[in-house]
Amino acid sequence: MKLYYFSEMPHHEYPDAEGEKYPSLRLGFPNRFFDRAKAAANYQRYLDEYEYADQVGYDGLMINEHHSTPSCVNVGVNMAAALLGRTTKRAKLLILGNILPIEDNPVRMAEQIAMADLISGGRVLSGFVRGVGVEQWWANANPVHNRERFEECHDLILKCWTEPGPFRWEGTHYHFRHVNPWCLPLQQPHPPIWIPGTASPETAVWAGQRGYTYVPFLVPFDIARELFDYYRQGAAEAGREVTPDNLGFLICAVTADTRAKALEAGRHFVWRMGPTLRGPIEWFSPVGMRSRAGKQFALKARPRSLATLSYEELVAERFIIAGTPDEVADGFALVQRELGIGHLLLEAQESRMDHVTTMRSIELMGAKVIPAMARL
Amino acid sequence: MRPHEETISVGGIDVHAWIGGRGDPLLVLHGAGANRGWVRWIQQVAEHFTVWAPTHPGFGRSGDAEWMEGVDDLARFHLWFIEAAGLGRPHLLGHSIGGWAAAEMATMSPGSINRLVLVAATGLKPERGEILDVFYHSDAQLRDMIVHDPKTVPEWDELFGQPPTPAGLEMADRSREMTARLSWKPYMHNPRLAHFLPRVTNPTLIVWGRDDRIVPVECGEQYRRALPGATLRVLERCGHLPPIEHPDAFARLVLDFLQGAA
Lengths: 376, 262
What we know:
The complex is a heterodimer. Chain A is an alpha/beta fold. Chain A contains 15 helices and eleven strands. In chain A, the strands form two sheets. Chain A has a nine-stranded parallel sheet with strand order 8-7-4-3-2-1-11-9-10, sandwiched between helices. In chain A, strands 5-6 form a two-stranded antiparallel ribbon. In chain A, strand 7 (about 195), helix 7 (about 200-210) and strand 8 (about 215) form a beta-alpha-beta unit. Chain B has a single domain (about 5-260), classed as Rossmann fold, CATH 3.40.50.1820. Chain B has an eight-stranded mixed sheet, sandwiched between helices. In chain B, helix 2 (about 70-85) crosses helix 3. Chain B is globular, with a radius of gyration of 17 Å. The chains are: A alpha/beta, B alpha/beta. The interface of A and B includes residues 140, 142, 283, 287 and 288 of A.
């Protein structure tokens, strides 16, 4: 099983009491609380951590993108991929992902992903996501068109990568009279495509039909298995075989020299389960963004929101795995047995987890956990 | 006079409509909330006019129109409805997003309608203030903001006081989705509409609530200035729903205006 290192590049650099005065940390929390000097230092730090994760042997480095939120100030996932493409040597660069429905220019996106793939020597894994509602607001993209734009943006990017230009694109949401990108990915026919899932059965089926790697995020095991069943249904429709390489899963994880230290560090993950997800439903799931089937499944997938779970419950249900290297290796092996996955994505830094703790966790993962996982 | 319901097919879409009353036809276009049917003000107006109150495509019990992208599409559709229903040259009254549709229809084909009534209409960007972002707020927040004072609304219990049924919630979801389709960006206005309004010389009555917290009364002023034959009446102690908040006064205004028709 392959392991991936992931940090949301958080900006938890304001007094929590200030954040609590607002309905949500997203969209409406004023950016006067954005600390430019700390952000400048943090970007250096976060990139150092990614580079170290590459050096110790992580199979991949996952990066993501959000907007208008202190939970993630990686606001340009292709920019980060290009930087890491130059400064890392061997790990895959898992972009998970580009937010397709809010993109107005899929041709430029296809070029940017291609450029990152070229700079990295063909190490890009190109994830595509529908985004959370907050991004629809940020981009002022009509949430009613979220799925249609996701699919059409995907189709145009794939065409940019696989069909010779110039060609014309007159679609429903995208119109380009002259498509002829002079930047194509090194990997042929194109970088592998990954799709995350949290609650949408349609997305799982869609990914299965295309043979893309499908990765549920932070859901209970039984829900992940159900989403994988939808994925298999889509794969079967297309006559595709499903192997562990098609399936991944995301959890939070940290290791340290002692169990006590690891459990203390793991508490930093609580911020991403509760405070950063707090906010009106209209902001996180605006009108029309989810189908009725998706809404019903979401209710089932999250009978209790992550925010209502205590730290101990989050650990017990393995949304968070924190312990000595041997303990986390056992935990990862259990996830692998439960879900039959080939890729485990570790959200490995969060909130105010400091640099020293993060680097030690990366080091121990490299020395003791990654080799054990490679044998699974 | 009791109304009846009909389904009228227009361009392949089944349009649900309430129809009733006597006299010249008056086409009534509802707002984003819903087609509230045979409410008090309509009953009074229907004593003198035949009221046609269709439900917009994508709303309530009318069929889907997922291909529509803006209120100008809705306007063209309702001009077609006028022909399909054989209304001749009806008076036209629209509230909120229905008022915006009515204004668009008047600019597209002023000869197709008789007198025009715009009520708390969206469609123009306010020169001061903003149109409230209804998608950004919860139903509970909107309910607090939509009227001046629920206690003075005669039909409040009947229209808003009942707990919603699952079918009602589903219908409300669908209507909200259609509203987003029609008005997401630019939000609740058409930057080109004001340029066409001077074409509309039809006698026009504009009605607004002084305390409208959804669409600022400023927009009523802007419509009045842009429409050559328009009068603006602003109701005191009234929010975004003049026909519901002050049904008797509203019906009186509408009747006086329409009965002045040549």
